[in-house]
Design brief:
Length: about 375
């Protein structure tokens, strides 16, 4: 059990459920992301962190620069709290926040919006009624089209150099906007564990296709405006994305925490920096202990990979008939026989920052010390 014994000892006074972050593991993971990015600055995906103290801690380390925010109200909040380079990773239709951004030149100088259609640009123009110039990044579809299949996420309709250059011209022609970047998120490389030869083949094929297309798109857009940002990648693709010289920055967040969805990649293995503790409240049968709470299922396709993993004591698993429950989570295995009422079982979450929507505080373990870090939720913030 190693670390979990130490976490349990150091947090024995707390009542479960509660979450811990191992700061040594977090730093180790940060350094490993920097190593993998090989000199390309890393923008921190805030959705995968959701704790300001940890975003700041990562930003202070060499190799990290800027935040990829997921919601405009979040971006405004971060900008007003000292974060100076914020790229919104996703389109926003938040009218009040768009108005606020356009009325705040300081925030507008720190935040770049993500756009992928003239319709969305028009929406922003109508909502952003203030005078501040708004920075714009174009999201380019980085999926792989092969054998009639679409491999990757369904996000941007922009794909070819001419598609992207056309929208770039529309942005550049409007004084309300400044075109500052393009982004390519290759989810089918970054977000897929290396579980089969077919997956590895798709990743290689996709990386080759994207390297060619990304270069052509960037050339086409640079004819229209100089670009400060060519963003690509995620935790699962740092070495591939940063190898392309046109890429000016990569994004990563999940790799700081090392959730279970990142357990099966060939070229890196983050340390398991975050976990949550649940208490045994019942022993319904031999080899089964039932825990209070714990049904924290991650977003995405509703599959087993989204369920939490009992991590310690070792050898426990969820029951197929109940999974991770709303207020009761049975776990099964030989080691359940050594568990008593009030004992702790440690769980790992499937994704990264999303887990912190369940907790106000993260207990940060540093050697033998424990301190409290507020999560976004603990700061009263919920950005969806
Ligand atoms: C646009 C974008 N970039 C990068 C990432 C990578 O984030 P992470 O490193 O947390 O996997 C994501 C995750 O979904 C994303 O949506």
């Amino acid at each position: 059990m190693g670390n979990f014994d130490r976490y349990a000892r150091l947090t024995a006074r707390l009542d479960a459920p509660y979450a811990v972050i191992d700061l040594a593991a977090f730093r180790h993971n940060a350094d490993d992301l920097v190593r993998r990015a090989a000199g390309t600055p890393i923008r921190i995906a805030s959705k995968s962190v959701r704790c300001r103290a940890l975003i700041t801690a990562a930003l202070e380390r060499p190799g990290f620069h800027g935040v990829m925010s997921y919601a405009l109200p979040e971006a405004l909040w971060l900008a007003r709290n000292g974060v100076d380079d914020i790229l919104l990773g996703y389109p926003t239709t938040h009218r009040a926040a768009l108005r606020e951004l356009s009325e705040d030149p300081e925030a507008a100088s720190r935040i770049t919006l993500m756009i992928d259609s003239p319709e969305h640009l028009g929406y922003v123009r109508a909502a952003a009624t203030g005078a501040a110039r708004i920075q714009i990044c174009l999201d380019v579809d980085a999926s792989l089209r092969i054998f009639g299949q679409h491999l990757g996420v369904r996000r941007s309709p922009l794909r070819t150099p001419s598609d992207v250059a056309a929208l770039a011209r529309t942005v550049a022609a409007d004084d309300a906007f400044e075109l500052t970047g393009v982004m390519f998120y290759e989810a089918q490389i970054a977000g897929l564990p290396d579980t089969s030869p077919a997956v590895r083949w798709v990743k290689r094929r996709s990386a080759a296709e994207l390297a060619d297309r990304r270069g052509a798109v960037v050339d086409a857009v640079k004819q229209v405006a100089p670009l400060r940002i060519v963003n690509s990648g995620g935790t699962g693709s740092l070495e591939i994305s940063s190898a392309d010289p046109v890429v000016t920055e990569v994004t990563a967040g999940s790799g700081l925490y090392g959730p279970t969805l990142f357990d099966k990649y060939d070229v890196f293995q983050p340390e398991h920096a975050m976990a949550y503790a649940l208490d045994v409240v019942r022993r319904p049968a031999p080899r089964i202990a039932t825990l209070f709470g714990g049904g924290y299922v991650a977003s995405g396709p509703a599959k087993k990979s989204r369920l939490p993993l009992p991590a310690a004591p070792s050898g426990l698993k969820l029951l197929g008939t109940e999974g991770a429950g709303e207020v009761q989570t049975p776990v099964q295995g030989q080691s359940a026989d050594r568990l008593h009422i009030g004992d702790r079982v440690w769980m790992r979450y499937a994704k990264a920052g999303e887990m912190l929507e369940r907790f106000d505080v993260l207990y940060a373990i540093e050697g033998e010390d424990v301190s409290e870090l507020k999560t976004y939720r603990g700061e009263g913030k919920n950005f969806g």
